[in-house]
Amino acid sequence: MAWKLILHSFNMIFGNLAEALKVSVGPILIGLLLIGISFFGLGLNFDFISQMEQGRSSNAGAALMFVLLAIVIFTVVLAWIAVAWHRFVLLEQYPGMLPAFKGQPIGAYIGKTLVLSLLVALVAFAFAFVIGFLTAVTASMGVAIFLGVALGFAVSYIWLRIGLVLPATALREPLKVSESIAATKPMSGTIFGVSVILAVLNFLISLIIGQVYNFAGIIAFVLDVAVNWVFIMVGISILTTLYGHLIEKRPLID
User: Fold this and answer.
1) Alpha-carbon distance 237 to 248, whole Å?
2) Stretch 144-169: mean pLDDT
């Protein structure tokens, strides 16, 4: 069932590839443009990171401002994409060359995302503390890798259990975190499997791309961008599928 849900999400994306690209490419390009404007507008140059590491930078304040602006822009872009994709799949609201922004519940989506992220971060912090302790005690790279994958699994599992709040927000439907947890309970085993598969896939693909960077940096960069796009869209699609199946009682096909 876990594989079925993941495959359904992949089919959702690549079966509607034109719409997936319309939903995501425009916002990403706008986000990159705004980040570039922020970077140069704050008077930074491309070696500011190395300068800061060496304690020679006089633009520490500007660098911090840039990082904060980049995070804000990245958050808005992700919310824009997610809202548009949820609404396309669940309401058949087809995007134009640029998905609708004005009048969409993007601000509410960002707010709910921040709240959910805080809840997940609290658990992840506790889990990371345990990982750090066990890694220090065992001094084993294998244990560190295993626990790192386990952390990815835990974050994914919790996110999927509480995350039905997000597509509900995109549709302007009220849904509490407790209601999301209750709704996903019948599929908790499937969500467990999905989280394991995604954590392992993420680790293996990251490992492969890391090796490709050693001899073909440009190819690795392109692969990295493509894989990150797919994982973002898959994550949004899984939440969309769960919401459609568990809240709107749609059948799981494919």
Assistant:
1) 15
2) 84
